[in-house]
Amino acid sequence: MSSILSANADFFGLDIGSSGIRLVQLRGGSSKSLLKYSYVPIDGKISMSDAANDQARLAETIKQLVAKTGVTTKNVAVGIPSNKVFTTIADVDKVPLKELPSSIKLQADSLIPTPLDESKIDWAVIGDSAKEQDKQEIILTSVPNKYIENKLEMLESIGLNVVAFEPDNLAMTRALAPKDDNSHMILNVGRISTDLVIVKAGVPHLTRNIPTGVEAFIRSAMENLNVDQKQAEQFVFKFGMVKSKLEGQVYNAILPTVDVLIAEIEKSIKFYQSRYPGVNVQGIIVSGGASVVPEFPLHIANKFGLNVEIGNAWRNVAYSKDRENELLTISNQFAVAVGLAERTV
Questions:
Q1: Which of 99, 170, 233, 333 has its C-alpha lying 20 to 30 A from 126's C-alpha?
Q2: What is the reported pLDDT for 109?
Q3: CATH of domain 86-143
């Protein structure tokens, strides 16, 4: 699912999201500093469409963004939306290192939802299995060949050289995960869906894509307050989960949808703790659009009795102090692009 390039090679991260395209270029080895970043909004119908005309429009938008940003390379690491990729944690047989690729390929056929000959697969060893002594844990990803080939063709048509594809949830984890040995949940609530990853010592041990995002909050506000989309969006981002504003009308309007997400978070924590007995999630890091919905992070903190913090996509990146406010303001939208740029390709 990825191609190999020298770790010292120059490349930038490209996040083609449902509501915008984000680009980040870093420089340096183990300690990286910000070189370029940029963003352009885009109609979700175009970014999510497979139609040739829409792909051509998408390609032109990316081409213009790359030119405007002035990146110094044509090499690019590209995110794959989590709803397009299957990611799982699996136990596989312990075999000698040289036999591992063929062994995993044999076992992958029973683990991934699409035919093996129609899929690109990638994997990484996590460590010994928590369940069986003679097995080891891997993180396994698969994506349909056709999706990758179409994206590759589109990006090559504008002169870009794709050096890696990576699932969005793994890229954002690289940017947001704390550098400690504890277990943390990373919750990136996007426009359409939510990426949920539980990491231990920075390594993903559970990944999910939940089909509830900010748009679902807005739809709830529209329906329950009988307002149009624009006004509903203003209500959600101005009053959010604050019970004392507008007599709690916005809170009550979006609460049922928020509770759907809360239930999935609870289910994920229980599953994680059943697989790793005695290991507790220490905190939740919230990013994406919902991180700026008033008191949404606090609502999660109160529900689970956990420390909840707003994710900082630039936590591992050096930049000049005079850019801090500018970068932190947009941090919640840049985790995937930064994580892609942080790869050691």
A1: 333
A2: 86
A3: 3.30.1490.300
